[in-house]
Amino acid sequence: MHWRPRQHGVFDTKSFYHVMDGTQDIKFPWKAIWRVKAPRRVSFFGWSAAWGKILTCDNLMRRGYTMAGWCSMCRLDGETGSHLMIHCSLASGLWHSVLRAFGVVWVFPDSIINLFYGWYNCFGKHNSSVWNLVPLCLMWIIWRERNSRVFEEKDLSQSKLTELFFGTLFDWARVGGLTPAMSLADFVVSLSFS
User: Fold this and answer.
1) Which candidate, 104, 113, 106, 153, places its Cα nearest to that of 33?
2) What Pfam family is a match, any one (predicted)?
3) How far is Cα 15 from Cα 189, in angstroms, rounded to an integer?
4) Tens of pLDDT along 75-104?
5) Hey, which of 59, 131, 152, 160 would disulfide with 156, CB 3.0 to 4.6 Å?
């Protein structure tokens, strides 16, 4: 592992303190959004989500709209970008299903921007091409499902959303030349780092 807040990559308590204190300047993780081989509209969506600008209930209410502010996915908490994309029980279940396929255990950060910051190339440049697509792909699936529930009153189960995610990731990886797999089953098997 590489400790990104330090130039040489070695963990030390001073840099950890500054990260936790919020006094360290962290550059925006633009490579995690714009350098991956995702469709441009998805990258733009990821960029907007990282800046907290997607039209979730909290942002709509700040603009003067009156509505119930609950998450349309879990209906338990307020809908913010970070809740919807990372911490919602449905989103969290999807993340864990995806991480299980990669054979990875992950501790989720508090925000979308920190997720992108910690995710990009975390296994090195040679192992990360498909891995780097995961946050954008999963957030895109979650956003489309959220909109389907809000505007069309249709919802998919978590297992169907997981299937949709892997199918979409496979399509993007094939178009980007990131996988030699010819079938979805072979692709999913090839994902595991373990």
Assistant:
1) 113
2) zf-RVT
3) 38
4) 999 999 999 999 999 999 999 999 999 999
5) 160
